[in-house]
Amino acid sequence: MSLKDGFDISVVKFDEKGLVPCVVQDYYSKQVLMLAYMNEESLKLTVEKGVTCFYSRSRGKLWVKGETSGNYQHVVELRVDCDGDSLVAEVIKDGPACHTGNESCFYRTLFTGENMKPFSVEGLYELIKGRKLNPKEGSYTTYLFDRGIDKILKKVGEESTEVIIEGKAGNREAAVYELADLYYHAMVMMVEMGIEPKDVFAELAARHVLDKKIKQGG
Q1: How many angstroms separate the CA atoms of 34 and 30, rounded?
Q2: In degrees, to the nearest 5, what angle opens at C-alpha 13 toward C-alphas 11 and 15?
Q3: What does the CA dihedral 108, 132, 199, 173 come to, rounded to 10 degrees?
Q4: What CA dihedral angle connects 180, 186, 190 and 192, to 10 degrees?
Q5: Lowest-confidence region among 70-74, 79-83, 137-141, 211-215
């Protein structure tokens, strides 16, 4: 099914100014990138072009995200909420969403509940990357980067073996522990090689599409 198939703009409730808010979310990481507004014309253009198009309230005209910066947002899916008065666009972005150069416009934290900081793959990646760019004395991660790729790959191999041993033994708790070790060391390898989480997510997504085609007899 293409993006245009089944598109029914009548379910969208525009406000008295003819606008509807649209939250833009990264397809791979699910990070919220930005909030902008669409009118009927920009929504139709978004569907037709496959890239986000918004209505600028300050300038009073349409604008395609990335038209100037090159940071286009390719739409994977558009969803409307239960009341029909707000949208979510999941996108694959060509570059940062924010004009400041940040990946998301929501890069400033106002408050974090005690012990409620959520874990994320991207957060772990950035932490590991920080240990490479800004070495910290006594840090195990920094130690691995100092020893180089051979040491990192050796640890990946060792942790892979531990996962296999615990998996074969049927020891769930120990397997989870070893999988976490493997995950961490694999991400150290990724940083060393310049591989980002989104690169792996994109590969998995491509395989998922191929898998669907095979199941459908394509």
Answers
A1: 12
A2: 170
A3: -90
A4: 110
A5: 211-215
Q: Is residue 112 part of a domain?
A: no
* Residue 26 dihedral angles phi and psi, to the nearest 5°: -70, 130
Counting every residue, how long is the chain? 218
Q: Are strands 87-93 and 73-80 parallel, antiparallel or unpaired?
A: antiparallel
**Residue for token pair 């998922």:** 208
**3-class DSSP assignment, residue 87:** strand
Domain count, the chain: 2
Answer yes or no: do 126 and 199 share one domain.
yes
Per-residue pLDDT at 41: 96
pTM: predicted TM-score of the whole model, two decimal places: 0.62
Q: Which residue has the tokens 């029909």?
A: 84
Mean pLDDT score, 37-43: 97
- The domain containing residue 177 runs over which residues? 121-215
pLDDT at 213 over 60: no
CA distance 151 to 82: 52
Give the type of residue at 155. K
Burial-class residue 1 by CB neighbours within 10 Å (0-12, 13-18, 19+).
exposed
Confirm whether 1 is domain-assigned.
no
